Amino acid sequence: MIGRDAELAGLCAALDAAVAGRGGLVWLVGQSGIGKSRLARELADRARAGGSAVAVGRAVPAGGSTPYRPWTEALLALLRDHRLPADAELHGWLPALAAIVPTIAVSATSGDGGEVSAAVRGEAVVQLLGRLARPDGLLIVLEDLHWADPDTLAVLEYVADNVSAERVLCVATSRDEPASAAMELIGRLHSRRAAALMPLDRLDEVQVAAMARLCAPGADERRLSQVARTADGVPFLVEELLAAPGIPRSFADTVRARLAELGEAERSVVEAAAVLGRHFDWRLLPPMTGLGPEPVSAALARGVECLLLVVDGAGFGFRHALTRQAVLAEVLPPRRAALAAAGLQALTAAGPRLDETGAEVAADLAAQAGDLHRAGVLLGDAGRAALRRGALQTAIDTLHRAGEVLDEPAGRGEVDRLLIEALAAAGRVDDALATGERALNEIAQRGGAAIERGELHLQLAQAAVTGTRWSVATAHLHAARDAVAGSASGAVAAQLAVLEAEIAFAADDIERAAALAETARAIPQAGPEAICHALEVIGRAARTRDLAVAGRAFETALATADAAGLPLWRLRALHELGTIELFTEAGTGRLWQARRLAEQLGAWSTAAVVDLQLCAAVQTVFALDAAAEHARRGLALCERLGLDRLRARLHYFLAENHAFRRERAEMEHHLALALAGAPGDLVEDAFAWGGARGMLALLDGDWDGALDCLARAAVLLRRTPHSEPAEFRAFWPLLLTAVDDRRAASELAHADRANLTIMFCNRGLLGYAHAIAAGRDGDRVRAGELARAADTALIRAPVWGHLARLCAAGPALTDGWGDPQQWLPEALECFTEHDLHGLALRCRDLLGRPHTARWDRYRFTAREADVLELVVAGLANKQIATRLRLSPRTVEKHVESLLRKTATRSRTQLVALLNAPADPTDRPRPR
């Protein structure tokens, strides 16, 4: 269930406790449509699947005069499926149950069940439920108790106080408004801890979007956005709006009934408020309605009382966006136009209050009043303001509306340019390019000026760069240059230069990209956006050789964006600073800042890129589950936005993830998807051979296979010298040096020149390669120093650190440097923990320990392996303790663990099992 994982987990835990004999009451509370019943149904389904009995009863709007209706419905349903227990002790309680379950009075007793106290009747219900709950528990769901009669609530109060020793979970649901006897009971029970209160909040924007896509997979972004805005986080309204556009009939009927409770003047005020918007400035209502402040204030209070309005800080608003729409639907068009004209006049007269929000309200009022041109101009201004503050979805929606109502070509052209910028920033590059093509056709049809055409091509080139559509970007950039030739301003010249820099960077011409970006930055008329963009390119160019220089460029871009109030460029600078943190220490602080800001702004393409970077960061430290989750989240965004190149890159990282798990088939599946999404891309091909296939072989202990794959990657990367400093590029010279391959010296020198050490763990990997070389040359002191420095660099990537020390251990034992006798047991412990059995095997080889392949699957720790070797040799516990300098009790614990892991019952069975011929089908069975 979207957005209800925590609540469902809490309910399941309560059900498990009840089945174990610790019953209770959980009360779900929230507004209508928030998902109380859906959550209760999900719990009921799980209870039935687990073998528990389930019964549901509900109160109804007219049921307040029908005593016990929810209990009657639930208990009758139970007794249809379960015979009334033939229990002498229960027989005495049957008269008290007769008022709730009428069939009991006829079939089981002749007594009068009416004259009993609420406590006795409640105890009778507890006695019955307790018996019906055996042996697998019972779930009772009582729905809509805001309509319940007092007798129902009295029984529930008693049950809540006395069901804790039974295998019964009661789940109640009710609305939190208006005030009801049920809400009073909740307060009493919760205060004395007789019930768990579980309030359900509205879904957030991300959860609403996920729910909408699940309900309507084919819906376009604009419709999904409208549903998200209108539903206000209420799941029922999400489903209703997707099923049929407009106001759901049941919702409209509810609003109509509430309006009918208002007097004429009160209704006039509420209708005028609806014309103003979902959230409104109540000070505009007196001039709109002709009423004084006091009658307006009284009318607003009545609107709150009738659940149409809510107090919103210092102002007011409608309870839901749909509430406002339903009220508007009741206002006749002439009156609505008159109210809108009066509201626009009052808003314009307010002067200073006509800020960005006021401009959007004014635009809406102008449209309702019939002044479409004025509405279009105001909407364009509001859309521009929303874009500048980074509210991308608001900007897109507002600019779409502006384009729909504007009929003047010049004004619509400006709106189109803003819309292209907003769509591209949100990652909707295809939509941006389609909007641009339409706008170019309109300019051609009316014979627009060359400068207008050039500015639009420039905007489209920027959109194509955002979406990494390099051929499209190049074409629009050339068209823009041709259109503005000889008449380009300094600001336009700076934009042209920085976009050309981006295209040069994409072509791996890093020096030219940096030079063009410096040129753009130096133009006096360059705007802050162009300067931020230029600094970003400068930083990315410097990142391949000097992280400090790159960091300063990105920090300057961040400061520039903050000073100019450019949230989107602030986001981009934070993201780039996050990559610096990733390279230097596998840090994710800045990346998480960027991810949250991207989500807040609706910059989903940037969010997808950050997801990729977060995946890379946690994959480096072998947090493989978290890495896969980041990759999958990024892939979902790529699918939604059509980001093909980024999708291919994320598939590569999932392939690498499966390689680290040694899951070859899954790895090859994602590699095929990655290479299909980037056909002919040398970097993707190189990373497939090195980062995926090569690392899988290396982690499997197949170093010959790893060398073959890494060699293929190295050949491909010679043709792309500015590729990412991935770890496999440092493992290549390390492995060559470890096995004393004749290529080792030249490849290590090449790695040093390639600045791979900007990535923190590569400093450690290459450091061990240099240590091996120094030890082989007889400089044992230098080798030890290099190894210690390498350990410092690798401390944040423990698996890579142990793998580097394993590579160095053989040469270190041979050449007499370092501390391989300490490295190997620690590495063995790590590799066993991560199921890296091929590497564990190599550790045991070097340690001279038994290493039958069948032993690997038992995941013995390094110390258990020590003890096991001596057990197999026939030593007793005291002898083992003396040999390993352990206490006898510690040895006993290790032996107990060995027996448990191998599912054997004695030392004799243990030795026999481990000395027996290998059986490939044999598997340990935990006791």
Short description, anyone?
With 927 residues, this protein is mainly alpha-helical. It contains 49 helices and eight strands. A hairpin with a 2-residue loop joins strand 7 and strand 8 (315-318).
Structure characterization notes:
This protein is mainly alpha-helical and 927 residues long. 70% of the residues lie in helices and 4% in strands. The protein is built from 49 helices and 8 strands. The chain is flat.
Sequence-ordered SSE layout with sheet pairings:
Elements: H1 5-19, E1 24-29, H2 36-49, E2 53-58, H3 69-81, H4 88-91, H5 94-97, H6 102-107, H7 118-132, E3 138-143, H8 150-162, E4 168-174, H9 181-191, E5 196-199, H10 205-215, H11 221-231, H12 235-243, H13 249-260, H14 264-276, E6 279-280, H15 285-289, H16 293-305, E7 309-312, E8 315-318, H17 321-329, H18 333-349, H19 356-369, H20 372-388, H21 392-405, H22 409-425, H23 429-446, H24 450-466, H25 470-484, H26 490-506, H27 510-522, H28 528-543, H29 547-564, H30 567-585, H31 589-601, H32 604-620, H33 624-641, H34 644-660, H35 664-677, H36 682-699, H37 703-717, H38 728-738, H39 744-753, H40 760-776, H41 780-794, H42 798-815, H43 820-833, H44 837-847, H45 853-856, H46 862-872, H47 877-884, H48 888-902, H49 907-915
Parallel strand pairs: 1-4, 1-5, 2-3, 3-4
Antiparallel strand pairs: 6-8, 7-8
Helix pairs in contact: 1-2, 7-8, 8-9, 10-11, 10-12, 11-12, 13-17, 14-16, 14-17, 14-18, 18-19, 19-20, 20-21, 20-22, 21-22, 22-23, 22-24, 23-24, 24-25, 24-26, 25-26, 26-27, 26-28, 27-28, 28-29, 28-30, 29-30, 30-31, 30-32, 31-32, 32-33, 32-34, 33-34, 34-35, 34-36, 35-36, 36-37, 37-38, 38-39, 38-40, ...
